[in-house]
Amino acid sequence: MNEAVRDPAQPIIEIENLSISFFTRKGEIPAVMDFSCTVMPGEAMGIVGESGCGKSTVSLGIMRDLSNIGKIVGGRIKFQGRDMGEMSDEELRAIRGNKIAMIYQEPMASLNPAMKIGQQLMEVPLIHDKVSKEEAYNRALEMVRAVKLPDPERMMRSYPHQLSGGQQQRIVIAMALLSKPALLLLDEPTTALDVTVEAGIVELVKGLGEKFGTSMIFVSHNLGLILETCDRITVMYSGEAVETGKIEDVFDRMRHPYTQGLFRSIPLPGADKNSRPLISIPGQ
């Protein structure tokens, strides 16, 4: 990891009463209200909720990547004990992409179509760690192997369009992990993939998290993925965190009606539609 010693008792990230609004011509639109969550070293936190509930906005808020209309209007985010709001632009740049890495929904958004995969991967150690080209190539190749891609040398020589969607997403994960981040943000990383590829990526992320000791925030509307990959879960509804805790605790004692509705809406194999109908959640 980046630091030789990391205090296991200190959270990697603490989000306290975070509120984020978007300021448009129509005025202020609150996207996240009073959101709090803590992620400890090596822990995977799942943020789950429906489309538009503000879960992706939380991860963009951590990255300070809210475009020019989004603003943090309340609360604070502390990374490894330091308030990110008090950091200079230079410090934030050093953290982003290095200590905090993000994987987006659409792999092609993170890849340059005009550059070979190898060059794009090598940029990370060349820029962040100032290593030699040979060392950068070896690290990149090793990471392509770690994300279980066939024929790593050929992958390094390929352009992004020559890879399938699942292979592209694995390259993006490799790129994110090359800087050995303390925190990895995954924003619905399997949305664009089919189910069998999705299962492989989930298995991969889980294994890499354990191997590299990376803390993760996994944003998804897919409860199954969260239950499979995370230690703790935060349920978001309409911009607020309505429930949080260990997966099994939330699973056993669902207090909020939205969480109950979410769990009831998971289709079960072999379930009879009459005895156990799928229940939709009323309201907007």
Structural class by helix and strand composition: alpha/beta
Biggest sheet architecture: 6 strands, mixed
Helix content bin: 25-40%
CATH topology of the largest domain, what is it called?
Rossmann fold
How many domain units?
2
* Percent in strands: 15-25%
Any guess at the CATH architecture of the largest domain? 3-Layer(aba) Sandwich
Which outline best applies?
Answer: globular
CATH class of the largest domain, anyone?
A: Alpha Beta
Could you give me the name of the CATH homologous superfamily of the largest domain?
P-loop containing nucleotide triphosphate hydrolases
Total of DSSP H or I helical runs spanning 4+ residues: 10
User: How are the strands of the largest sheet arranged?
Assistant: 6-7-8-3-9-10
Unreliable parts? 1-5
Distance between the termini: 44 Å
The average pLDDT value, as a whole number, equals 83
Q: Got a strand count? A: 10
Query: Radius of gyration, Cα only, in angstroms?
Result: 20 Å
Summarize the structure.
This protein is α/β, with parallel strands linked by helices and 284 residues long. Helices cover 35% and strands 25% of the residues.
List keywords for this structure.
4-stranded antiparallel β-sheet, 2 domains, 10 helices, Rossmann fold
